[in-house]
Structures are given as structure tokens and as C-alpha cells.
Amino acid sequence: MRQQIARAWPRTIVAQITVLIAISLTLSCIMTAIALHFIQPEPLARLGQASALVRATTIVQLAQRSESDAEIDALLAHANRAGIPVEKIDTPKSLENLSDEGRSVLARYFRRLGGPLDIHGIEKIAFRDNALIVVLDKVSLKLRMPANWTPPPGRVPRFMGVPLMFVLIAVTTFSVVLLFYAARWVIAPLSSFAAAAQAFGRSPKSDYALSEDGPREIALVARALNEMRDRIRELVERRTLMLAAIGHDLRTPLTRLRLHAEQVDSAVIRNRMVREITIIDNMLSDTLAYLKDDSHSEPLSSVDLPSLLQTICTAYIDSGFNVSYQGIDRAIYVCRAASLKRAITNFIENGTKYSSEVVVGLKYLESDVCIEIADNGPGISPDIKEKVFKPFFKGDPSRSGLNRTGFGLGLSIARDIIQAHGGQIDLCDRKPHGLRVHIKLPSKPRMSP
Ligand SMILES: Nc1ncnc2c1ncn2[C@@H]1O[C@H](COP(=O)(O)OP(=O)(O)O)[C@@H](O)[C@H]1O
Ligand SMILES: [Mg+2]
Question: Does residue 434 line the site of ligand 1, with CB under 6 A?
Fold first, then answer.
């Protein structure tokens, strides 16, 4: 059954909306019919009620016109014989005690039905215990009305009354609710486009494919977008592979070049050559690390953080830089060790590029592990503090005094790694000058996948 409905369901948005409106109108009409059936009394019943009122009015008119008590008695006797139950009663002391229900309406009906005859004191009329009580000049009458008789509705014209209001409210509510859900349902696939675009924007590797069901127009767009996503992903992957291959293949001749350079006789030229080769080598490592992005794939391992930091410092000290470690002696930490080492190396490397002294610190602060890399260089001006983390962003190379800037990937790689560990980086100024890189890592890393 469900499948049959699904098969018969129109495929285009226009047809779907048309069908939905038709369904909602049909349901509204059915609701209206049901409402009217229950609210509106039978036409015949209405006729009965009206004729009882007309009969009562006639008796009251005749009684009012009667000239003697005998005439009234005769009138009442005739009426009762004709099946109109009416009796004389003692004039009620006060009509206030009588039910007020429909009094003014009744009075108006009496006046209208009575034509030119002015029924004096007709306001003295009430409806109680299913009987009309009418106080006339000469006599008070009690006219029993048929069972279930109610005073007719007054001021409001019949068609503007409760039934019409009910119909209006029912139809409007029904149509609005139905159309709201229907429209949402038709448009729902569109909102998933935004989610897919966002996911793809964050990472072209995202597998978020758009559903190709739904109305035909939307399915066509979804298919086109899915194909475009696949093509872009393929393009990005091909470029990445190509760059990685170039980077990787350059390594071999570079290693050979280093071997040759080390055989150069002149110490001055040899050192210069080795330094340049090291710079190219570092640039290649940065590029490969950036392209590989294994900050998310490396397995976790336990390391002693102070030893890891000291190892990096020692490597720089051996190369003649003024780098020192000042921090706690032992701190076992579970992390992606190689990635973390690369991140911290990138910060220390920058410190050695831009300053003459780098101090690396490590301490626990509440539940966080804090690593600090401070230098006495020029620091980073506030307007580029966020930009330096962007891939390929390089500050003014002349500021370093050395032509040792890389591709501008170091900080971007480092931030990816720290964030993958659930940590964060703050770049602070150091007095009188210099940069303090403040890395806060959760003591139990919350690894992002
Ligand atoms: N310790 C530092 N002192 C001053 N400027 C720095 C420091 N570290 C980074 N920078 C600035 O941030 C930029 C980006 O750094 P990075 O991403 O490591 O790229 P790269 O080292 O390849 O230039 C650098 O070009 C430099 O302008
Ligand atoms: Mg760098």
C-alpha cells in the first residue's frame, strides 16, 4: 500500500504542491461538512421551533386585544383545545426572578411578529421551565413551549454565527498546519544542501553525500552537486598526490647534494651550502607534513613530555642556537608523539629564526598541561596574530634579519596538531619584546578523529 502511494506520488515540486493543496482543501471541506452536521440543527426542527414562537405570539396578541376576562378565558380554552398549552397565572411580583435568558430577543421577536400592534409592557417577558411567561395589562400568561425549545438567537445574523466561525477556524487551521508540514517536507532536501556544503567546506574528504530522493528538480540539483563534489575531491587529491610526489622525489637529489656539499674543502662555503640545503629540506618536510596531515591518523602513545622537549632543545643547541628548557622533570602524557614533536619543533624553529634566545617551559595548571615557548625577537603584531596560522602566510621576511622563512606552513601545521589533541594556542607579547607561545593541552587529550 505504502509502495503504491509512493509510486503514484508525483515527482515534480509543482505537482506535489498542487496535490498537497488539493488534499488539504478536500480534508477542510470534509471537516466543514462534519462540523455543520453536528452544529446546525435539522431544518425541520428549526421550523418547529419557529412555528411554536409564532403561535405563542398570536395568542399573546389576541389576549392583548381581548376586551373582557370572559373573552380571554374563551381564547385560552380554544387555544388549549387546538393543542396550544397556555394558562393564566398570577402576575409574578417581579420578573427579575425569572430567567433572563433571551428576554430582549424574545421581546424583539414578539414586536416583529406582532406587526403594527404595540404590545404594551412586552418587555415583561421571560422564559422559565420551558415556558414563556408574558405579563400583559389585563392578564399574565404562561405558554408551555415544545420540549427542547430555546429562545431564538438574537443580534448575530445566522450565517455569521458559531457555525461559520467554526468552519473558518477549522479550515484555516487545518490548511495552514497541513501546508506548513507539507512545504517543509517538500523543501527539507534543500536544507540538507547547506549541511553538505558546510561539511565539504570543512574537509573535502567529507563523505556527506546529498540524498538524491525527493522532488525531481531537487534530485537533479543534488545529483549535480554530488558529481561536482566528487570531481573537486578528485582534483584536490590528484594535486595533493602530485605535490607529495614532487616533494618526496626532491629529497633524494637533495640528500646527494648534502653529501657533495660536505666534501667541499672551504669550510665557509661548505657551511653556507649545508645551511641552504637544510632550509630546503625543512621546507620540503613542512610541505609533506601539511599534505599528509597525519595529525589525525598517528596512533596514541605514552611519552615523557620533559624528555621530548629536551630532545628538541638539544638538537637546536647542537646546531649552535641558544635554546634552553626550564620546566618540570617528569610528566607522562598520552598523545600522538611524532605530531606533537613536530608542532613544538615548529614553534622553537620560529623562535630561533626571529630571536637570539628561546626558552621552553612546561608546567601543570589545574587539569591542563601548559607548554610555553618564549623568545626575545620582534614578536608578532596584533593585526596578524590570527593570520599567521593560515597556510602559506608569511610575515615580513626582512624582520627576521635572516632569509630563513619557509613556506608559511609551520604555524598552520602546529595549530592543526594541537587542536587535534583538544588543546589551544595563544600568542602573547613578551616584555620588553618577543613572543610567548602559550600551548594549553588537556591532561587527558580529547582526540578529534
Ligand atoms: N617567534 C616569532 N617571532 C616573530 N614572528 C613570528 C614568530 N613565529 C612566527 N612568526 C611570524 O609568523 C609567520 C608564519 O610562521 P610560520 O607559519 O612558521 O611560517 P614560516 O616560518 O614558514 O614563515 C612568519 O612568517 C613570521 O612572520
Ligand atoms: Mg616557521
Answer: no
